[in-house]
Design goal:
Length: 181
């Protein structure tokens, strides 16, 4: 894979914190809300980073519960940017077996675990970038932050990220590699 002198790993991205709440579980729905903050470190060899289609999905035991799409953002002068994905209070349909399993966890355990997957796509330009028309040297990136664990206190339904800041996986490709894939 050619990267035109770029660091092939792209930017460094860390999940900084997660706050999350389970507001209600019924036999067919779950109501959740929360936010996830992450730090994006722009590579030194890029003059601009543009992040499109940042989708944050919440899973419980590999079952999708909720997702949010963040506004696109551009990183130019700053080397480090904090971004936040907000999950408004949302009612999501769930399978009856999953809701029963979750309800049992709340009754029998003091804490409860959710996992988050963060998936994003973006574009990076080398330091010589002049504008959007100079896209031949642009590099496309895919970001994946699997299994961000959140401990929910069963009594309150409130939770935070378990453990320290988590580094995400980043894959960078130049435009030609993307077209050939």
């Amino acid at each position: 894979m050619m990267t035109h002198g770029f660091d092939p790993n792209g930017p460094e991205i860390h999940i900084q914190s997660v706050t999350f709440s389970v507001q209600n579980i019924s036999s067919s729905h779950i109501t959740t809300r929360g936010e996830i903050k992450f730090i994006v470190a722009k590579p030194r060899d890029c003059s601009a980073s543009i992040y499109d289609d940042t989708v944050v999905s919440i899973f419980y035991k590999e079952k999708p519960l909720s997702m949010t799409v963040m506004e696109p953002f551009t990183q130019k002068e700053k080397n480090h940017t904090m971004v936040k994905a907000m999950f408004p209070s949302i009612v999501s349909p769930i399978d009856t077996r999953v809701s029963k399993r979750m309800a049992l966890y709340f009754v029998h355990n003091s804490s409860f675990e959710f996992s988050f997957d963060v998936k994003a796509k973006g574009r990076l330009w080398p330091n010589k970038w002049m504008g959007p028309e100079d896209s031949d040297d642009a590099r496309w990136i895919n970001i994946w932050c699997p299994n961000v664990k959140v401990e929910i206190v069963a009594k309150t339904g409130l939770g935070t990220m378990a453990g320290e800041s988590l580094k995400c996986e980043v894959k960078a490709q130049n435009r030609l590699d993307v077209l050939l894939a």
